[in-house]
Design a protein that fits this description.
Elements lengths: L16 E3 L1 E3 L4 E3 L3 E7 L7 E5 L5 E3 L6 H4 L5 H5 L5 E9 L7 E7 L27 E2 L12 E10 L8 E2 L4 E5 L6 E4 L5 E7 L29 E9 L12 H5 L3 E4 L11 E5 L4 E3 L10 E4 L5
Parallel strand pairs: 2-9, 10-18, 10-19
Antiparallel strand pairs: 1-6, 2-3, 4-5, 4-7, 5-6, 7-8, 10-11, 10-14, 12-13, 12-15, 15-16, 15-17, 16-19
Amino acid sequence: MIQAILVQEHVTSVAPLGVCFWDALTARRISDGLVVTVFPVDQPWRTWSAFPNHQDVFVVRNVPGLRAVENGSGDADFWNSQLPHRCLVLQVDDLRGRFLPFVFHVDAPQRGLAKLDCAGSPLELAGSPLEPVAHVPLFSAPGRLAPGGAAIVRADLWDPDANAGRGAPAAWATLEISAPGQAPVIGVTDQQGHLAIFFPYPEPARVPLATRSGSPLDPQQAGPSLSKQTWRLSLRAAYTPISATPVRPHLTDVLEQHPATVWADGARTVPLQNAELQFGRELVLSSQGSTPPSVLLIRAGYPL
């Protein structure tokens, strides 16, 4: 005979914050190799680490001032009640050097995955079709090893107007690339202005059936060989320089920079708005006749 179980105490634990990081190139969450350091925005010396769970979500616990939240029930009434809040800073570093470092502010506690809306300028980060939830994007570092079959665009961005006209690397600028049939991809320069953007190659061109002659199995009628395939890319830049270049930029500041102009020529007379990508070759963007040589010149954007 099974005796009735007497529950004497029911204990719940609520995580004030959960954050997941998304790599658009591999279309998956990333937790391996990432180090996430947390501290209150008003107590930067008081740091601790967040750790990923089995779903690759970094869980933030032991937040000062939120012990009552962590011991709460976690039900609907709990989340609808007036809860104490803390604004936290999350610092993200990649031990494997695949992704650029950054920091961002986030409000805790939050139900579900973190939404970046604490710093006074709400930031909407769109999820991918495969990941329809809130997430924080990761941006490839220039030294990242690209997986086989990925298209690569590189550039060294240079701001000739910085440093009282002496010029300086355009640190933490963004470059958006739009390839045919694909969603735009955003790349971010590092502290030295180096940029690398990785994305899947677009679909190869095909000759329409109505224009083909001869046997439908004739390989000469199937379109250019893969090695000769090219695609026209559209480019858009954003860049707002700051007086002191941080080692880790604020994610909101990076993604909310003002539209900027990249130049096709060293004289800065022709904007670079398009480029041609060839299969199997890295595309290196630069301004022809630039000083210094082989850099992509950029003019900072400012509020209208």
